[in-house]
Specification:
Chain lengths: ~240, ~180, ~550
């Protein structure tokens, strides 16, 4: 594989051809906020937090779906980008009922942490406070639409890793909802294998173990790496 | 040295932020030397005074009384701080926002357990259609998130305010919840 | 069928049509059908039968004639005479019309629309040349007017490369709105490597008030198929998809029929016109999502997936349907292809302006005397469209603004009435050419309300994939709602503008990127109206209720 050279925040950087810009930024230890991205799943480019400026292009690009190119000149933390990231997080907090204080993921939530990291300390938009349901019909897991940010990690992990494709999205715009099978109660799903991968990859408190209460839920993504290392490289080393 | 005229106020919230404020423990003694507490739920003052330097406001804006007090605070304070998640985000009080005000009152007072109060309107200030965070009704100068913000956060914020510096919190000190 | 057979078919049909002394063309396009066109058509057929005129009268159900607000429309062609156009025809009137042309009884003058009025005189029909003159359900009608000769010529006399060259030279640009040079796109797909390639016609027209593509598909389906086949030959594709929005059942039905008729005669399918070129076309019907007009969402929909856009690059030219190189063109773009091949790139490039060649179809709607579907040379001024073709603003009111590009576009105020309608000029005004929706507003329209209308549309049509569009449109709509109900503060206007810019710059696809345009453009040209709402609680046009107050004023009461 050939190597390309690019400039990131005024620093010359070399990277493998075919890598995404986001992967390179992570390798370099540049902190990029992400929500829909999760290593091991296909990229979606939906949360728009990892937008970067590319010199010579009038459009901002999401780093997760942009491949590195020779002579690319990238800026990751301009004033404009930081401002937009804050606004996007504000929009997410205003969209549904993200009440951190009473959430199972309080203290472990990726949305909560991204907001704190970037300094999004208040929301200027009107809280929409939609009236959303919870689905506690599964014997082990609970779905809470109030906390869902529609990152679709659950949809992708179920389809791409577990191979069951229980999850999908229905409706559109702000009426979009993640659904189980043909929009039915989780407990009645015959395609769900109860593997719990969706719960583990969910960045917020939208999916959690039944019985977990405020701030008790923690999630692990390592299994994705193990499975993919096994599948792609035939390396089976658990526990790292 | 002139002492800073300092106030705390309690709108629609559980008073947990004030409890956390009391967790400053021995630092309260240091604080008392630098400030004059001119208004607070823990001080018996009826009117919000004029010429306040810093006011920490706990709680969301849930009713007309909250709204009036918030506007009074803004008019009489140099710096207003949203103190805790209810003031910053609406938090738990805002959970009622998905219900209509009338439905809410019926469910809680009429259909709820126990005897419901009579003569309601005179006792209870009119509820706003939606519970709002403080900055959506008045200009707010600094935000101190947390439910409640722990004593350490409060101390860092208050120290900055006393020193006349902007409130800058580390990421781990500015999480909601 | 080969080119000689095609020629024979054309001649036979021309001769057949000449046997009729009088051909009565009845518009059977959606607007005329919805105002009673099929009853008119039936009445004409009955009158012909009852009068025993079957031998020399023919009633033909055609496509759109243009002045839709004057429908049902009919055109009477008499051998040796001038065409006579009738408007607002009723079944009763149609009997009089038949009687008049049969026996030279007095003409029902109150129904006659003079053919030399500016509505017709200022137009130039290239893409719509057959529209209103042929029966869209008869292949012979299209062939009689030179149909499929361009395809025959391209297949025999041109290489794929020279076809692409010809389209590049014509200066044709995408009619879907963005205005990308069509020939360059073709050439990219031609050069792209892939064992299979596809051609897609985008007929998922969705802008409120726009019906250019519907009309073309309903009125002249074979023109579109011919354009697709030429495109397929040029880029090396053997399969085409016609994506028609679900709300266009008549268009879909006529296209299906046209495909079958063309396949039966060897004009599509295997060995097209006895050449080595194979080209199948299938219709795919949308399910009611505006976003499926966006090319990547459209392709997802064709492949049976949820109609949501995916980030570009890769562009469809490199990796489109089933990851194969795919050419996607708007229906109107493909409708321009046959005339370009037939008359040559130079002929086409003579029409229009230096950078915007050819003609553009607009759906002229709103507050003008005559609304309808018009085709004009690029570069015509907005004033000519409004006052000459449209006949001016009714009720003696003043022109206020025109909205081009629908929910993705912007408004053009009266001060810019003399702007030429071309891609660059419209962009310079903060609007876009768009697909051809053109809504004229008079002083009774409130521009904040107009912006709110389009924002509501975008909010409802956002697919929900990316956060800025999904939630940003809701918040922008909220803020506009506050302004129109009177509960907004000056801060809200600032928040709104800030949000507009962010959504424009960070959204994933064109829908979100352009959703703020109507707001930005109305703020740019009509800031005073916004301020009057917020500051004075006044709607100058008298549209908004303004019966609420900002929450912060509640405590003062």
């Amino acid at each position: 594989m050939s190597v390309v050279t690019l400039t990131i925040n005024d620093e010359l950087v070399s990277a493998q051809e075919g890598e995404t810009l986001l992967a390179v930024l992570h390798e370099r230890g540049i902190d990029m906020p992400t929500l829909c991205h999760l290593e091991g799943l296909s990229e979606r480019g939906g949360c728009r937090l990892c937008m970067v400026e590319l010199e010579g292009s009038s459009r901002l690009q999401a780093a997760c779906v942009t491949q590195v190119q020779e002579d690319m000149i990238v800026h990751t933390h301009s004033e404009r980008l930081v401002k937009y990231r804050k606004m996007i997080l504000e929009l997410l907090f205003a969209e549904r009922n993200h009440i951190c204080a009473v959430c199972v993921m309080n203290g472990n939530c990726e949305l909560q942490w991204e907001a704190a990291k970037i300094g999004m300390d208040h929301v200027r938009y009107e809280y929409l406070n939609p009236d959303l349901a919870m689905d506690a019909s599964h014997e082990r897991y609970v779905l809470d639409h109030n906390r869902c940010i529609l990152c679709t990690r659950c949809v992708r992990v179920c389809d791409e890793i577990e191979g069951a494709h229980v999850w999908d999205v229905m409706g559109r715009g702000a009426n979009s909802r993640v659904i189980i099978d043909l929009n039915q109660a989780w407990g009645t799903s015959q395609s769900c294998t109860s593997c719990g991968k969706c719960v583990q990859v969910c960045p917020t408190g939208a999916l959690f173990d039944k019985g977990a209460t405020v701030a008790e839920m923690e999630k692990q993504h390592n299994f994705l790496r193990w499975i993919l290392d096994g599948r792609e490289k035939n390396v089976w080393s658990y526990g790292k | 040295m002139n002492k800073l005229r300092f106030a705390t106020a309690w709108l629609g919230g559980c008073s947990g932020c004030h409890m956390s404020f009391l967790d400053l423990d021995e630092k309260l003694i240091d604080l008392a030397e630098k400030i004059e507490l001119v208004y607070s739920p823990i001080a018996d003052v009826k009117e919000f005074p004029e010429g306040v330097d810093v006011t920490l406001v706990e709680g969301a804006v849930a009713n007309l009384d909250n709204l009036r007090l918030a506007q009074e605070i803004r008019a009489r304070s140099r710096l207003v701080v949203s103190f805790g998640d209810c003031a910053v985000t609406g938090n738990v009080p805002s959970l009622r926002n998905k219900l209509g005000v009338d439905d809410l009152l019926t469910a809680v007072y009429h259909e709820g357990p126990g005897r419901h109060p009579t003569g309601g309107d005179a006792i209870m200030p009119r509820l706003l259609p939606k519970v709002l965070p403080l900055h959506q009704v008045i200009k707010v100068d600094a935000f101190l998130p947390g439910c409640p913000p722990d004593a350490e956060r409060i101390w860092i914020a208050v120290s900055a305010l006393l020193a006349g510096e902007p409130v800058v919190l580390e990421p781990s000190m500015r999480t909601f919840g | 069928m080969n080119r000689a057979d095609l020629e024979t078919m054309a001649q036979r049909e021309v001769q057949r049509q000449q046997t009729f002394r009088c051909r009565i063309l009845c518009c059977a396009s959606t607007p005329c059908l919805s105002s009673g066109g099929s009853a008119v058509h039936d009445a004409i057929k009955d009158a012909i039968k009852e009068g025993g005129f079957d031998a020399d009268f023919q009633a033909v159900a055609t496509g759109c004639m243009g002045p839709c607000s004057r429908g049902p429309m009919i055109t009477v062609q008499t051998s040796g005479g001038e065409d006579v156009i009738y408007e607002h025809v009723t079944p009763e009137a149609s009997r009089q019309i038949v009687a008049h042309h049969a026996a030279a009884s007095p003409a029902p003058v109150e129904y006659i629309l003079p053919g030399d009025i500016p509505f017709f005189a200022k137009q130039k029909k290239v893409v719509l040349a057959n529209s209103g003159f042929i029966d869209p359900e008869r292949l012979e009608d299209y062939v009689a007017r030179g149909g499929y000769t361009a395809l025959g010529y391209a297949l025999r006399e041109m290489t794929p490369e020279t076809v692409c060259r010809e389209i590049i030279d014509s200066g044709l640009r995408g009619r879907g709105g963005a205005g990308y040079p069509t020939g360059l796109k073709w050439d990219m797909v031609r050069k792209a490597r892939g064992d299979r390639k596809y051609v897609v016609a985008n007929g998922d027209e969705g802008d409120p008030g726009a019906y250019m593509d519907r009309t073309l598909m309903e009125s002249d389906p074979h023109r579109l198929l011919e354009g697709m086949a030429i495109a397929g030959y040029a880029v090396g594709a053997d399969q085409g998809f016609l994506y028609v929005r679900g709300e266009y059942p008549i268009a879909a039905k006529r296209l299906e029929r046209a495909i079958r008729a063309a396949e039966r005669r060897g004009l599509l399918g295997s060995r097209v016109l006895d050449s080595n070129f194979n080209f199948r076309v299938d219709v795919r019907i949308g399910a009611g999502a505006f976003v499926c007009g966006e090319e990547t969402a459209l392709m997802a929909s064709i492949m049976g997936m949820r109609g949501q856009p995916v980030p570009r690059p890769p562009y469809p030219a490199q990796s489109g349907l089933w990851e194969k190189p795919t050419l996607i063109n708007n229906v109107e773009t493909l409708g321009s292809i046959a005339p370009i091949i037939q008359h040559g790139a130079a002929w086409f490039a003579e029409i229009g302006t230096a950078k915007s060649k050819g003609t553009k179809i607009f759906a002229l709607a709103g507050k003008v005397d005559t609304t309808g579907l018009i085709e004009v040379p690029m570069g015509i001024t907005l004033r000519e469209i409004v006052y000459d073709i449209g006949g001016g603003i009714p009720d003696g009111l003043d022109f206020k603004a025109a909205q081009t590009g629908g929910p993705s576009g912007g408004c053009i105020p009266a001060a810019h009435l003399d702007t030429p309608m071309d891609y660059e000029s419209l962009r310079a005004l903060g609007s876009i050419m768009g697909s051809g929706g053109l809504i004229i507003m008079d002083e009774r329209s409130c521009m904040v309300d107009v912006a709110k209308f389009f924002m509501e549309f975008c909010m409802d049509e956002s697919c929900g994939k990316c956060v800025p569009c999904r939630v940003g449109t809701v918040q922008m709509h909220h803020l506009l709602e506050r302004i129109t109900t009177g509960s907004a503060t000056a801060q809200d206007l600032e928040t709104l503008q800030d949000l507009c810019v962010m959504v424009k710059e960070t959204s994933l696809c064109g829908l979100g990127q352009s959703a703020p345009n109507p707001v930005l453009s109305t703020i740019h040209y009509f800031l005073e109206e916004y301020m009057a709402h917020i500051r004075d609680h006044q709607c100058l046009a008298g549209v908004c209720t303004l019966d609420q107050a900002p929450i912060t004023e509640l405590a003062l009461v």
